[in-house]
Write a structure and sequence with these properties.
Layout (H helix, E strand, L loop, with lengths): L1 H18 L3 H7 L16 H8 L9 H11 L12 H8 L3 H19 L10 H15 L1
């Protein structure tokens, strides 16, 4: 009896609290068949719960009953989130705080060299270009 109460009580209490309904209203308000799956565990003993759910505490579900539930409700597993694409992973690598600081430093280096006295010297841009290349290679790896 305690086992049935432990498993069903939070389910019915959480559902009825979220919807603002009493437990009895929950069972009468659902049209998809779930209502009959939520008996009030305070009003039923272990045998009644076993009979209601078509199972046995000692033996569990029969193969036929398990197949019926699987066909009706689907597999008992969480939905898996989609895997991120390679482009998304690459972009996520560029969003770290240190990486953003390095990119700002590269832009600052190129800007300072572009406005300085050696703006025509291609080698003066080496530091900014090197930082960009290293950051991009690091994100790609």
């Amino acid at each position: 009896q305690a086992c049935g109460r432990r498993l069903l009580k939070p389910l019915t209490r959480d559902y009825s609290q979220k919807r603002g309904l009493a437990r009895r209203e929950v069972s009468s308000s659902r049209a998809d068949g779930m209502a009959s799956m939520l008996p009030d565990p305070d009003q039923k003993n272990q045998e009644e719960l076993e009979q209601h759910f078509g199972t046995s505490v000692a033996q569990g579900l029969t193969g036929k009953r398990a197949a019926e539930i699987l066909a009706r409700d689907g597999p008992n597993e969480l939905e898996k989130p989609p895997k991120p694409t390679l482009l998304m992973l690459f972009i996520l690598q560029l969003t770290g705080f240190v990486i953003i600081l390095l990119l700002v430093a590269a832009v600052a280096s190129i800007t300072v060299n572009a406005t300085g006295p050696n703006k025509d010297d291609i080698l003066s841009y080496t530091t900014g270009k090197a930082i960009f290349v290293i950051v991009i290679l690091n994100a790609g790896i």
